[in-house]
Amino acid sequence: MTSTSSSPVSPDTVTTRQLVGEFKPKHWVSVISTLFAVIAALVYGGFWVGQHLTEAKTEAQIAKLTVEMTKLESTAGELRAELKVASARNAQLAETNAAWQSTHQKTLGEMARQQQEVVSLSTALGRASNCTFIHEQIRSIDMQMKSTGSLVVFSAGEEWKKEQSERKTALQSQLAAYQQQLGQCNS
Fold first, then answer.
1. Which tens digit of pLDDT belongs to each residue from 107-116?
2. Can you tell me the distance from the alpha carbon of 94 to that of 90, in angstroms, rounded to the nearest whole number?
3. pTM as predicted
4. Using CA atoms, how far apart are residues 142 and 138, in angstroms rounded to an integer?
5. Is residue 92 helix, strand or coil?
């Protein structure tokens, strides 16, 4: 604004070009300093807002992760408790299994002993039955021998006497065989 007159300038009539054209170096220093200060303030404000937003997001994430961590710790505690219960149950089952196995082994031993006793008793019963049979046969043969040739027959011929003698010999042979078996029946 190079005006030779000292008339006042109306702001309505002055253009930006005219105004900037009239700037002196000190004005430029002021404008640049002001612009720099405004830009610095905007940059700092943006940085401050960004930092606070980032901090807020970080705090929200920390809170969320803290909640998740608390849930995980709770779940881990529950799992540890369940593991202790399962371990105790496992130990109890192992003890019960060992007791059952011991009882099973004792039962097997008792069954083997009783089975051996049954075999022994069966053998003894078989021998006793055999001895009883032999005794009955000996008594029967003895009765037959007493009745052989003892009947009084009015007409006893030689043939009848021979038959009676052969019969007595056969009965004595049977008696001797049964007496021999009787000596071995309890062994």
1. 989 888 988 9
2. 6
3. 0.38
4. 6
5. helix
